[in-house]
Amino acid sequence: MRSAFVQPSLVVFDLDGTLIDSAPDMHRAVNLMLADLGCAPLSIADIRSMVGDGASALIARALAARQCVNVDTGKALTEFLHHYESNPTAVTRTFAGVPETLERLQAFGLQLAVCTNKPTRLTTMVLENLGLTRFFKRVVGGDSMPYRKPDPRALLEVLNGFDAPPSSALLVGDSEVDAATAQGAKVPFILMTYGYHRGPIDQISSIATLDHFAELATLLHA
């Protein structure tokens, strides 16, 4: 752990790669979409490297990786969402210690929220299916507003809903996208190392890097 301790009143979480390991279900849905278009499948490692900027970016990267030309990207996205929404948590699971740690953070009196680039409908389905809805007072998805992470306005929209200044908040995420969002919003950022980051951990700016989700409760209760 590398840390600079902060004591927030509001903790905002990224979803995919931070709270949940959703890559297997996204992998299934992307490959079904590619099969519909007559394109070759991708590996799960490929999908993990493409996650983070929303469904549209994921589909654009998948099509480019398989050189699927003359494809209507809007239709491809619709096909992906159809396959994904049919069962978004078939094999998706929370990372180790997530429910228990969220319980502890609530017991500390912290307010909790989610800021994700995942479409709101899918986010709601996933949180409900995994029993996480009860923890979060606010959930902002990638289609909740005209902008999304790394645009800091996505995070600031969450803070505005709590009337919380950046100095009283904390963003917990797993990627360069989350780090850039926090930096732009002037919100302290904690990086979970097990997620879907693309580059070296030591090149992602954060006040702390944690290898296990449960370490977050220890840090915030110090």
Report on the architecture of this protein.
This protein has helices at 23-36, 44-50, 55-65, 73-86, 98-107, 120-129, 152-162, 176-185, 215-220, and strands at residues 2-3, 10-13, 20-21, 93-94, 111-115, 138-140, 169-173, 189-192, 208-210. The protein is α/β, with parallel strands linked by helices and 222 residues long. The chain folds into two domains: 2-22 and 91-220, 3-Layer(aba) Sandwich (Rossmann fold); 23-86, DNA polymerase, domain 1, CATH 1.10.150. α1 crosses α4. The protein is globular, with a radius of gyration of 17 Å. 44% of the residues are buried.
The order of strands across the largest sheet is 1-9-8-7-2-5-6
Provide a count of the helices.
9
Summed over residues and divided by their number, the pLDDT gives a mean of 93
Summarize the biggest pleated sheet.
7 strands, mixed
Rg, Cα atoms, Å: 17 Å
The CA-CA distance between the termini, in Å, is 13 Å
**Total DSSP E strands:** 9
Give me the CATH superfamily of the largest domain.
Answer: HAD superfamily/HAD-like
CATH topology of the largest domain: Rossmann fold
General form:
globular
* Beta-strand proportion: 5-15%
Total separate domains? 2
How much helix, percentage-wise, in residues?
40-55%
List the helices and strands in order: EEEHHHHEHEHEHEHEEH
Q: Name the assembly state.
A: single chain
Just give the CATH class of the largest domain.
Alpha Beta
